[in-house]
Amino acid sequence: MDSVKTFELKVGVFIMIGVAILFLIVFSVGDVKFSKTGYKIKVFFNFANGIGGTAPVRLAGVGVGQVQGIKIARDEKTNTTKAELTVWIDDNTKIENDAVVTINTLGLLGEKYLEILPGTPGNPVLRPNDVLIGKDPVPMEKFTEDLAKLTESVKAIVEKIRSGEGTVGKLLMDGAVYDNLEAFTADIKKHPWKLLVKPSGE
User: Which residues contact 168 (CB under 8 A, 6 or more apart)?
Assistant: First the structure.
């Protein structure tokens, strides 16, 4: 009977250790802060670009915190709707009050995160519940639209060149211009001294 109880006790301890290890792994991956202390600030954007409510925060490229929440807020002064991010910052991290905050992406299609670019050295640093106004990212639709306009402009230029419009078009498409240029080049190769002779009247 005692051996059965001892075995059950060992199994129970083993299970508790396993659960504790699993608990630590899960919260470690989730970047939850147990021992670190920090402070919270608010960051406002006109356009949040799909950043998540638990996105990482980097200062000068180094991880210093995490977004802890995002919601819609109304700016009564400007009568506009904004995205309000609640951001947790490590207590040892000092951020100048003129720091620039943007939403960036890891890689081309990677995870979005909050990027903080250091402000002016010597400026006052942020304190708990202080506010920063973020620099709005460019929407992908706008980027695609600008790219389409650029593509159309390039097509128009290529068509003009093909039709022989402009100096470049004439040079590339007019056979006579090309032949004259080729003859001039060949003549200079045979008689390079002509480059040193000044035309009469000069």
Answer: 161
* Closest among 141, 124, 140 to 132, alpha carbons compared: 124
pLDDT of residue 125: 94
Residue 8 has pLDDT above 50, yes or no: yes
The answer to pTM > 0.85 is no
The Cα–Cα gap between 44 and 85 comes to 6
Burial 53-75 (b: 16+ CB within 10 A, else e): eebbbbbeeeebbbbeebeeeee
Q: What tokens does 174 get?
A: 């007019």
Q: How many CB atoms lie within 10 A of CB 161?
A: 16
Strands (E), the chain: 38-45, 56-59, 62-75, 80-90, 100-105, 112-117, 131-133
- How does pLDDT run across 121-146, given as a tens digit for each residue? 999 999 999 999 999 876 655 555 65
Question: Domain-by-domain residue ranges, the chain?
Answer: 1-30, 38-137, 142-195
Sheet holding 100-105, edge to edge: 100-105, 112-117, 56-59, 62-75, 80-90, 38-45, 131-133
Q: At residue 129, what are phi and psi to the nearest 5 degrees?
A: 75, 10
